[in-house]
Amino acid sequence: MFDKILIANRGEIAVRIMATCREMGIRTVAVYSDADRDALHVLEADQAVHLGPSEPSQSYLDMDRIVAAAKQTGAQAVHPGYGFLAENALFAERCAQEGLVFIGPSPHAIRDLGDKTVARRTMQGSGVPVIPGMMETEGDASKLAREADRIGFPVLIKASSGGGGKGMRVVRSPADLHDACAAASREAQAAFGNGAIYLEKYIEKPRHVEFQVLADAHGNVVHLLERECSIQRRHQKIIEETPSPALSPGTREAMGNAAIAAARASRYTNAGTVEFLLDEQGAFYFLEVNTRLQVEHPVTEMVTGIDLVRQQIEIASGMPLSITQADVAARGHAIECRIYAEDPLSGFLPSPGRISFAREPRGPGIRVDSGIYSGFTVPVEYDPILAKLIAHAGSRTACIERMVRALHDYVILGVLTPIPFLIDVVMSEAFGSGDTFTDFIDTRFAGWQPRTTDAELVGLAYVIDALAGRRPAGGAMHSDMEAGSPWKTLGNFRP
Amino acid sequence: MNYTLRIAGKDIPVTCEVTEGTRIRARVGQTDLEADFRVISAHQIHLEVDGKGMNVFLADDPAGKLVNVGGTTWLVQDADALAQAGPRRKGPKDLPQEVTPPMPSVVVRILAAQGERVEKGRPVVVVSAMKMETTLSAPFPGIVTRINCAEGDKVMPGQILVDIERDEGPQDQPEQA
Question: What residues of B are in contact with residue A465 (Cβ under 8 Å)?
Answer without folding.
Answer: 45, 58, 65, 67
